[in-house]
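Lab notebook page, bench 4
Experiment: in silico fold of construct C2
Operator: M.H.
Input chain length: 351 residues
Purpose: comparison with the prior construct
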Amino acid sequence: LVLAALAGIKYQQIRAAIALGESFPEPSASVEAQRVARSLAASHVAIIGEIVAPESLELRNELEGRVNAVNMAPGSRVRQGDILLQFDISEEAARLEAAKASAALAALNRNRLQKLLVNKSVSQDRVDQARAEADIAQANVRQLEATIGKKTLRAPFDAVVGLHDIEPGEYLAANTAIVILMGINDFLWVDFNLPLAQASVDVGGTVELFVAGHADAALKARVIARNPAVSLQSRNLRYRARLDAVPGIPPGSVVNLRVPTGERSVIRVPTPAVLHDDMGSYVFVLAADEAGEGYRARRRPVQLGEEDANLAAVLAGLEDGETIATHGAFKLRDGMRALVRERAPRAAGQG
């Protein structure tokens, strides 16, 4: 009897607790909602590019010799044709004077014999020999002039001289790296690579650059060339774009690029609607509650494209006309009741 009495009391307590729990309303959250719509949007790919100078070379000497004069200060500007480095040419200069004298003598002998040939006072063979000797003498002159020219290093274009430590009197072996010359231009090149699956950029198209120190706005560069074949190492296609020269972006800098890759159908949703966890990205799709009171939140995995502070592009996982939770979605759980205030759909690209 005692046990039966205790069981009855416990049963009544459990029923009272159940009744008390049922008296509380079902947990719910208040969120904003939006019907989604599919639209065409420009797609981009973010890659790394390199700034390249249109005119740049490493100055080297073709012939060995002793440096006689250095006419280039590190960091200075030089004009095309300026003598940058002069090797010792005293021996070649002396030989050139002798060669010019020999050439002049050979030319006089040739001219004299040609006049005698008119009067038949000399044979044709003798005249031909004199002509050959004159030509050989002139060739010797040109050879010595070429040697002197190779020992006189001139600026091939207007340039800024790089750092060097060459001093007069120093002996340089052939093919010694002397200094870097960087051309002075009002534009730069931007080289970048794209995989074949994304290599849909046309010559004449525009890419955007983002450089540290110029974050206020993206810089525009126009694509001017494309390699006719892919790289054998990376299997990527190389492009080159032209960028108007900007102070503070030296050649060799690495920049971030945003390259257009065409248009595709996407659904743009407010960024607060997209949540992330270890399983990936997801949104809460709102379906009308069967009881007719509000909505039920259903978790839906999605595949994202570009995302910024305002909008995220959903590539897969949503369909036209579905309603999703936007602001306040973080309060929801799968199957939870949601009370919503519906928003009008936004046009693609709006914040």
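Observations: The radius of gyration is 41 Å. Confidence is low (pLDDT under 50) at residues 347-351.
Next step: discuss at group meeting.
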